[in-house]
Description:
Elements: E1 6-9, E2 16-17, H1 19-32, H2 40-48, H3 53-60, H4 66-79, H5 83-86, E3 90-91, H6 95-104, E4 108-114, H7 118-127, E5 136-140, H8 145-156, E6 160-163, H9 166-175, E7 178-182, H10 189-192, E8 199-201, H11 207-215
Parallel strand pairs: 1-4, 1-6, 4-5, 6-7, 7-8
Antiparallel strand pairs: 2-3
Helix pairs in contact: 1-4, 2-3, 8-9
Amino acid sequence: MNGSKIIAIDLDGTIIDCYPRQAAVTEYIFNELGINNIDFQVIWEHKRSGLSTVEVLKSYFPEINPKIIKSFTLRWLELIEEPYWITFDQLFPWSQSILENLNSIGFSLVLLTARQRPENVFNFLTNHGIHNLFSQVHIVSPQKATEQKADLLLQVNPLCHCGDTETDALAAEKANVRFIGVSCGQRSKYFLERYTSVVILDNISELPKFIIDFSR
């Protein structure tokens, strides 16, 4: 058994609740395109089922003009990591206390996240007073997230990797690291269950007990 005292952990959807930012950006773009009264909860559930942004739009708007989809996608990429919209992100209510608890029982936390703008990550961690809870912070390219996270997992050799999407699951699989999924983020429990040898928790509040039992 891997005796590592290191836990690799994802940020968005795992430690941070990104729903408010994604909802706000989605509504803003649709308003720009002249489309109002969007039910983002329905869109979110489509996303959590595993659909891409384009697939979500086609599912939500079966008759949508492809030009609208292209316009939405381009604006999404432009806006989603703008500093103003990042302010909509918030820690899940349990995140800080659980991270502190993991530190207190001897685990070193390595943050692995995919972002276009690394400065936003460091600003968020500092502004929310959790920057000192991580021994390492690694920010990879969203376009190469699986491969780059897998490479980092091989270097870090953690006891496990905790995240909320298929990117995290596949990276852990490539690195032969145990994956612990959380179903509070971008993907649902049903979607994450398709990955092999996965343990799925509701959120990281369940992580310390599981980790202690697993590491014995």
